[in-house]
Fold this sequence. Notes:
Structural class: mainly alpha
Family: Belongs to the sodium:galactoside symporter (TC 2.A.2) family.
CATH superfamily: MFS general substrate transporter like domains
Domain Major facilitator superfamily (MFS) profile: 1-443
Shape: globular
Number of helices: 16
Keywords: Membrane, Transmembrane, Transmembrane helix
Distance between the termini: 18 Å
Radius of gyration: 22 Å
Number of domains: 1
Largest sheet: none
Number of strands: 0
CATH topology: Growth Hormone, Chain: A
CATH class: Mainly Alpha
Protein name: MFS transporter
Low-confidence stretches: 1-5
Transmembrane segments: 44-62, 83-100, 112-132, 152-172, 184-204, 235-255, 280-300, 307-326, 332-356, 376-399, 419-439
Oligomer: single chain
Amino acid sequence: MDSSTAKLPIREKIGYGLGDVASNFVFHSVNVLLLFYYTDVFGISAAAAGTLFVVARVWDAINDPLMGAIADRTNTRWGKYRPYLLWLAIPFGICGYLAFANPQLSGDGKLIYAYITYFLLMTIYTAINVPYSALMGVMTPSSVERTSLASYRFVGAFSGQLLIGMAALPLVKKLGAGDMATGFKYTMALFSVVAVVLFMITFATTRERIAPRHEEPGSVSIGKDLLFLCKNRPWVIMVIAAILTLSNAAIRWAVTPHFFKYHVGDDGSTAFWFLDRTSLMMTTGSLAFIAGIFFTGILSRRFGKRNSLIGLTILNALTLLAFYFIPPSAYGTMLVVNAIGCLIAGPTPALVWAIYTDVVEYGEWRFGRSTPGLAFSVATLAQQLGIAIGGGTAGWLLHFYGFQANQQQSESAISGLRILFSLLPGALALLNGIVLLWYPLTDAMVKKIEDELAVRRRDAAPDPV
């Protein structure tokens, strides 16, 4: 498939984007709601929950690269990566439901249950999301089309997050009829079913087009593949950036319900339409984020992917820092500043994942080895490590500042919530922008790599019979 004729049909781009809607119906619910569910509903301490989020990543350090290597070595009539969307959609939905199922257990039993279900969910998430991410790299050889595909993906991702922010807590309230534990259980059952259906649609509507180079079984080990990745400087920089990005996002996600419940004053009553203050903040932020995604192509063409990502990251960091200075009575100002920050940040995920495909192709061009599954799996590991650092930090610092669930908070706890919601995420985002200054691949170099790889692939293709 020549890069000049590698344009994907809209139907396929939409189908691919639905995969991230599916993922976020469960995964974003975990990111935004699980710490709150553990502390205020299930009855686990913030410190214990924070430790759980970090300990789970020890397994991810093994599980993520292993899944990437397995996916790279998978061969079926459906391709290398697509089959996992079919095979694991139902297990993913089941594990998402179990994480919020709220069984009646003792204190120790609840903690054990939380460990088991969270480990299972993260394992299945890796097993389905790593192939899903790698799929983007084999659907088309065109960097421009991959940027477009990434935009569709993250319109899907943040549409899923919009629905979570808009509907999750109101559904918990409605379906639970005042019982939050029952509400969480039924809400996650609904979200899990939707996720399964959407993953099936993604499987049915996408295709793999870039055939792998033929290699003898066992000719290249996983260890050598990892060594090639470690020598890939652009990829290493993006992995560091991923850790910082998701650390700052995870801290903010984890404490958002706490911040509005205990600092701003959100008692769950309707603030607008059927939305409480927390849901309204997440909904308007998600809408702004989705709007921002549509500027991805314009910014990429005008400034290049690298420069756009650096500038947007630093500007978003400033909006996060600004939240520290907004008093709790100025809820309207919070809505505006949050929307501006989300609009600015909107193009960044699409730019990041388009850049990931560029650095994978750089690795193939530089070292003669294409390992999209492994590269994306370690990128996913970096993001999950960032989420673990962020989630763990949020839980530990809530405990450190004296947070007590469902009680009037001390001045120390309120101060801690403000730091966790603004200063700490903003500082991490600013550091991320600084790290990205070392990313070396310009769009001109990416185009050169793309053209040279197209020639290599054409020359390596078997002669038609």
